[in-house]
Amino acid sequence: MNELANFLPTVLSRSGLTVPSALIPVLAMFLCASIMAAFMGLSAAVLVWAERKLAGHFQCRLGPVYVGGKFGWLQSIADGIKLLLKEDIIPDQADRPLFRLAPYPVVIGVLLAFIAVPFSEKLMVTDFNIGVFFILAVLTVEVFGVILAGWASNNKWALLGAMRAAVQMVSYEIPMGLAILPVVVMAQSLSLKTIVAAQSGGALHWFVFQPPFFMAVSFLIFFIAGLASLKRAPFDLPEAESELTAGFHTEYSGMRFSFFFMAEYAGMLLVSAVASALYLGGWHGILPGQESVWWFLAKTGFLIFVMIWIRWTLPRLRIDQIVYVGWKVLTPFVLACVVGQSLWATLR
Amino acid sequence: MLSSYLPILFQLVLAGGFACALLVLTHVLGPRRSTAVKLSPFECGVDILDEAHHRFSVKFYLVAMLFILFDIEAIFFYPWAVIYRDFLSEGLFLLIEMGAFCGVLVAGFIYIWRKGVLEWA
Fold first, then answer.
1. CB contact under 8 A, A174 and B15
2. Where are the alpha helices (DSSP H) in A180-292?
3. pLDDT for A127-149, tens place per residue?
4. ipTM value of the model?
5. Domain segments of chain A: what residues?
6. How much is the pTM?
7. What is the domain class of B2-115 according to CATH?
């Protein structure tokens, strides 16, 4: 963002506009924020397209393979227009103010988290000194939206889905938060830029490949917990189409529904991006000296592909299995990783 | 110092505005044809019996309470993790301290595990 603020005066003077210099940082921030919002909308559309195509090929579904113009790109656009043109239904018995409020925290939380994502050394909105922590904290805001939606709908499916979502997101928050600690111990910072910079020098310097592989285990834990907090299969019980209709967003339609939808896809991008910045070297390439935003996007894209792959391969878990995995498997393992990594750091 | 957090405020305003704008747009463009059946809660085609807000299984609330306890404890790890390696040259004080903290945490964890709080069935 600072680069943009330095760059803006030249652009403005070329185009013949005069802006007071005090306004330049404000303008830069505004531009960054709008770029991020546009990026989120666009990425959601692209990911929906990718998911549809991959699902079609994984499960031999005919529709997604043939529909929607060349490579099916028209389908996502048609979807967007359709959602925009749909009626916004608020059921009679719903708690109207809360029902209207619920989609906002969901979409705002995800959008806020994007400003700390380090796409490359220069290409990020701001580098907070609490970067990772900020992203995790802001991503959690989604829980409020989901519970509000389930409660305000005044529908049994919605309430069941929301309660499941609450238990699940809350249980996996702990392993997810603790899984970043081994990385923080090694990088000595919570800023994502510093964490990625600490992994320069080729693939062997990425944190996943560091012996004694405590960080590789915590990468796995982070990824699993990320899947769970995004409510993606096999952790999709809050939505569980075959038992709860659509879970917490059963009563939502049109644009309000699409907010939950957008948040899920943008969340996929976000969790993958954070995981690749924390453990997979971010913008650093496989060979020493390679640095570009494309490396970052490739790693993120790969993790998103794995998420989609898992969704169309594994069946759904039960709620007792969810609690079991979260509390009795992931939490002890992640604590062991934190202790092990700090002992290792002492020995060296 | 605080100015580095200003983008959060900007993004917050813009995200809210973005969401509002989309909803206004859909209200302008979308149809409004409400009928009694359409506005009734979805029940898979069965007539509504009663309200949805009944008493709920206590297990969900137990997990939420455990989360609050553990999450607050997890917060204390963050500043420790950031400064841990800086203070390694001055002996093992930070390691022992965090070992003691982890010990208390694990003791509580084992207690709730043995008490069967984490059993769902």
1. no
2. 181-187, 192-197, 214-229, 241-244, 254-278
3. 778 888 888 888 888 888 888 88
4. 0.84
5. 89-347
6. 0.87
7. mainly alpha
